[in-house]
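Section 5.1 Outputs to date
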Amino acid sequence: SSGINAEYGGDGMSLEDFKGSLGKEFNVSGAYRNVVFKPTEFEFDIIKYNDENEKLISTDMDRILEKKFERLEKGDRTAVRLQFTLPKSCYATMLLREIRRHDGL
């Protein structure tokens, strides 16, 4: 508390300035977030392919139009398809970052 007062003291502000009617306007309630979440419904496939422009997964439009999607079983290149569910306020990019940090990748 004294460190915060010292921080705002140079601007002529204190913690008391955030209490009362002005403080209520800027007082935002919230909740703590968990640091780690485990994804649910986690699935993965190893996909082999040759052409970098080759379609590796079916799109939503393919599903709507009921297009059959055929994937090759052979190829010089390898891709990993991940499918998972995360709760609100969790980011898939963070999950992918953690997966990529593994020494084997």
